[in-house]
Amino acid sequence: MAQNAQWPDRQASRYLGKDIPRVDGPSKVTGAAKYTYDIVLPGMLYGVILRSPHAAAQVRSVDASAARAMPGVVAVLTDIGRTARFAGEEIAAVAAETEEIARDALKAIRVDYEVQPFVSNTLRGKDIPDRVGEPQVNSRGEDPDTLWALAAAVVEGEYYVPVREHLSLETHGVVVRWDAEDALTCWCSTQAVHGVAGELAAGLGVPRQNVKVICEVMGGGFGSKFSPGVEGLTAARLAKAAGRPVKLMLDRYEEQVASGNGPDAYMRCKAAATSDGQILAIKADLFGTGGYSRRWAVPFPYSTYTVPNVRAAMHGVQTNAGSQRSLRAPGHPQGCFLTETVVDELAVALKMDPLEFRLRNVRGGVWDQQLRLGAERIGWSRRASLPKSGRFRRGMGAACTTWGGGGRGGSVCEVRIGNDGSVWAGIGTQDLGTGTRTYVAAIVAEVLGLPIERVTADIGKSTLGNSGGSGGSVTTASVSPAVMMAALSARERLAQTAAAMLGVPAGEVRFADGNASAQGKSVSFAEVCAKLPSGGIEVTGQWNQALQRGGVGGVQFAEVEVDMWTGGIRVIKVVAVQDCGYYLNKLATESQVIGGVIQGIGMALLEDRKMDNGTGRQLNPNMETYKVPGSLEIPEIDVLLFDTHNQVTGIGEPPVIPTAAAIGNAVFDATGLRMRRLPMTPKRFFDAQEGRMV
Amino acid sequence: MNNFAWLEPKSVAEASQALKQGGAALGGGIELLCLLKDSLVTPASVVNLKSVSGLNGITANDGVEIGALATLTQIAQHERIRGSYRALAQAAESVGSPQLRNVGTLGGNLCQRPRCWYFRDPEVHCLKKGGAKCFAVGGDNEYHAILGGGPCYIVHPSDLAPALIALNASVSTNNRAMPLEEFFRLPAQRMDSETVLEQGEIVTGVKVPAEMAGWKSYYYKARERESFDWALSSCAVALRTSGSSVQEARVVLGGVAPIPWRSKEAEAALRGKTLDESVAEAAGRAAVAMAEPMSENRYKVALTRNVVKIALLEALK
Q1: Of the candidate ranges A189-193, A328-332, B94-98, B242-246, the one whose mean pLDDT is the lowest
Q2: Are residues A70 and A50 in the same domain?
Q3: Cβ of A689 and B302 within 8 Å?
Q4: Last residue of a domain, which of A236, A258, A280?
Q5: Whole domain around residue A352: which residue ranges?
């Protein structure tokens, strides 16, 4: 069976490959769904963390005596951290009867800091030798410095993509309850229930099997929620010390300074192309910060193009700012923006249509096909006739994307069918917001020929069968094959019973519309279940490599209008051609692409974590000044699902990658102004126009 | 946030008394909640002005009178205001988001504190909070003042104020009335507040004079995010015209100075002229002729020049 398993033809399917409304949609919009934030337990206390106000400091001493003496304060920990490497690093913690009392208690804790010098930004740190790590050099072909003379066009420039934040609407946090001396239950807003269970067990010194992690629904993670974090371990320690459950959810300030970010990328680059429109060579020095660690790199030049001769040196810069974490396609949007801007500049320098130049340089046929498709869809031929003078000017730009998206082995799904006809499918994955619960139910419903409402999909618990973290766009291609195999195995058992009832060979039984049928005879699903051996069916399914595949390409085209008087950029339309393989839920797949494009628009036009060089503190740790798109920033988004094969592939990440680059190239097309620094705000517009660059 | 008493005065006099004893005035509550949460104010009591009746009306007889508790949505949707005092309706409609406009009030919009990110950081003790220096000087001053700054370089965040000053509005408090233009104070004049209000003094409303209904007005606001943002630079204009000739002009800038900034220079550049693109451009240049940009906000000079131009050209339409 494993060899022959395949996804049903979506022409003939009831659910798979169709638009499937989310099974948990109604509970989310009515507020019935319980997020970690909503969990309230009897006797529960509220935990809060004291954070360093200084960007760099050693703690000499902590005096929490006044805090301990406050009525309502139940537990105080003064040993969370002794070194502050950024403003916001954890020092001490309090658990109290209310969050208000806990926050008052924090103010009563006296910390004696020895304040130290700090560096807040890459652009300053890159020139301070002891803040810069050993370069990592991406090298192939000849040294570009020996090749410039062969080029028909050479471009040079400085570029900058700032640090961006995840900005999950539900902040990081947990509710922890100790069930025994060495056993606990943890409700956690996470994208990895099994991973968090493992980290809690290791961090607290309790057996892994005694840790139960629950995440029924969660409000976004984007790569920042794989671990319980300092806040999770601290809550567990507070709960232990207090002998009562503790809830500890970060507030918005904490979320923005201390729960991860996507690193920046500064680049000085020289690039060349030949007269026949081929990229010849790229030489670049890149700098970026992952926070205090000097580990940093972005994929440059981005792998969608053939660049025969490369020397690109990556320098990690140590700064006193919060640490990087994976952020939806880690490194790729940065690498893509830098590469696609340079590619566009080369095309312009050669006086070649940027689309034609891309077609000559993309690394494979998939982008070739998609570029042609996308160009037709947005109307690339209209480009020359768009207004290019006066106050409002219009232009178009393009960019390519690539990602893995294949599954990982190890996922195990269990399907149980009761004699009463009830159907349950359980797997220890979680729904990051991508619709995991819905396709778990839909696959089982499809295979068993049942309405989706008849299937209970149980996910978000570390006590269920193993599955990995939801990152790298691997979830769907890891989870769905295991669910499919479990469902097929359950159907095989059902078919045996049905066959006996109908007096036909098991191989002829078909399950559809709530019935098992063969040779014109039919029994209901419930009747078959009633005749199952006592105890019903309990089967498991393992990941099946043949049902999934990795490696996706995609392209996006943007059309923009630029107000030359204000520097205001309005995105009019984005066409997203996205390689996706066999999509399980068309509605959710398109929704992923739309979400990626919107996040990419934020990167292009708004998002910029600002660290103050003087105080070492983040200037915009809130959603007022760290800006993301609102309803008026969202254009028409035309999604083309490009399905060239019959295997499941993850696409959570690829659609966020090329949007900013496509918009930047469209702005150049409209205005002749190359904006090499993101975000493209009115400030950056006038700075670029008046020659103020990075 | 500290604990506070909740007071519901039944009259302006009672409210004034409560404010004198360390209370903080609550209109829509948006700004006060921000200030409380960041511990920028720690009042003994919160004085709910909404318990005082009669402050939330809009009366259009001889000009238009707007009570301090009228919401931004009420102002934006008021038929007479939309018809006769267009800049004011446009300014009200440009504030925040629909939710904020539904609760935000006229009084709160005029009395809100600066959005400066150094001022709003509870850990930063800046000039405005009694500290020794303005952190925007030599710091990240991308959103700070290019006109009227020093020694503190905040910008005034109100959208309504430039529009009301362009429309020559007066403001009333519980013990005086004055042209709204005289209501605001530069940091060089007063550091602890952006207005002339004394302790216990409450804005009760504004009045736009009847003759302004004959003027052409417009409010234009440039911002980074159309959905919800403060002005990078904004401009309210009101023009008394005869044919296409400008007899008299009032030009007020927002987002570029510590107070709503009346540009007499731009007004002079318009007087007696036939308003076309080059005259509008000249008025824009005049408005920023005295600008002193800081290290990161040079862009505001070109932007403001064009914002003035846009407001003027749109006013004629």
Answers
A1: B242-246
A2: yes
A3: yes
A4: A258
A5: 265-405+549-689
Within a domain: residue A135?
A: no
In this complex, the residue of A566, A612, A614 whose CB is nearest that of residue B303 is A566
CB contact under 8 A, A567 and B97: no
Best of A48, A120, A625, A634 to disrupt the B interface (most B CBs within 10 Å) is A625
Pairwise CA distance, residues A637 & A346, whole Å: 28
Average pLDDT, chain A: 97
Q: Is residue B113 within 8 angstroms of chain A, CB to CB?
A: no
Give residue B23's pLDDT band: very low, low, confident or very high (50, 70, 90): very high
According to the model, what pLDDT value does residue A1 have?
Answer: 52
Is A612–B140 a contact, with Cβ atoms under 8 angstroms apart? yes
User: What is the model's pLDDT at position A264?
Assistant: 98
Which uninterrupted H or E stretch holds B204?
A: strand B203-208
Using one digit for the tens of pLDDT, what is the confidence trace for A194-216?
Answer: 999 999 999 999 999 999 999 99
What is the distance between the alpha carbons of residues A369 and A359, in angstroms, rounded to a whole number?
A: 9
Query: Which helix (H) or strand (E) is B72 found in, with range?
Result: helix B72-77
pLDDT digits (tens, 9 = 90+) for B304-317: 999 999 999 999 98
Work out the pLDDT band at A4, boundaries 50, 70, 90.
confident
- A294 interfaces chain B, CB cutoff of 8 Å: no
pLDDT tens, position by position, A165-180 = 999 999 999 999 999 9
The beta-carbon neighbor of A619 closest among B140, B222, B229 is B140
| Amino acid B109: pLDDT | 98
Residues A673 and A637 in one domain: yes
Residue contact B225–A629, C-beta within 8 A: yes
- Tens of pLDDT, residue by residue over A460-512, are 999 999 999 999 999 999 999 999 999 999 999 999 999 999 999 999 999 99
| Number of domains composing chain A | 3
In A224-298, DSSP assigns E strands to 246-249, 265-273, 279-288
- Residue B75 to chain A, least CA–CA distance (Å): 22
Are residues B201 and B175 in contact, defined by beta-carbon separation less than 8 angstroms? yes
Q: A-contacting residues of B 188-227, CB under 8 Å?
A: 222, 224-227
CB of A610 within 8 Å of a chain B CB? The answer is yes
Whole-angstrom distance, CA of residue A610 vs CA of residue A625: 9
A612 CB within 8 Å of a chain B CB: yes
Q: Whose structure tokens read 């009747």?
A: A527
Q: Do A509 and A473 fall within a single domain?
A: yes
* Residue A164 CA: distances (Å) to CA of A323, A328, A558, A607: 12, 11, 21, 6
**Cβ pair A359, A352 in contact under 8 A:** no
Instruction: Using a CB–CB cutoff of 8 Å, tell me whether A619 touches chain B.
Output: yes
User: Across the A/B interface, how many CB contacts are shorter than 8 Å?
Assistant: 85
**CATH number, domain with residue A331:** 3.30.365.10
With 0-12 CB in 10 A as exposed, 13-18 as middle and 19+ as buried, what is A149?
exposed
Residue of A nearest to B98 (CA): A631
**Residue A675 and residue A660 share a domain:** yes
Q: CB of B49 within 8 A of CB of B55? A: yes
Q: Inter-chain contact A612–B115, Cβ cutoff 8 Å?
A: no
Please indicate, yes or no, whether residues A374 and A433 belong to a single structural domain of this protein.
no
| A619: closest chain B residue by CA | B117
Structure confidence by residue, pLDDT tens digits, A262-279: 999 999 999 999 999 999
Q: Please check whether residue B242 touches A, CB under 8 A.
A: no
Report the relative pairing of strands A279-288 and A309-316 from DSSP bridges: parallel
Domains and CATH numbers, chain B: 1-53 (3.30.43), 58-111+155-316 (3.30.390.50)
Amino acid, res. A616: G
Q: So what's the ipTM on this one?
A: 0.97
Q: What is the DSSP letter of A71?
A: T
- The answer to whether the CB atoms of B139 and A614 lie below 8 A apart is yes
Determine, for residues A630 and B138 on separate chains, whether the beta-carbon distance falls below 8 Å: no
Taking an 8 Å cut-off on Cβ atoms, the answer to whether B299 and A605 are in contact is no
For residue A172, how far is the Cα from the chain centroid? 15
Q: Grade residue A694 by pLDDT with cuts at 50, 70 and 90.
A: low
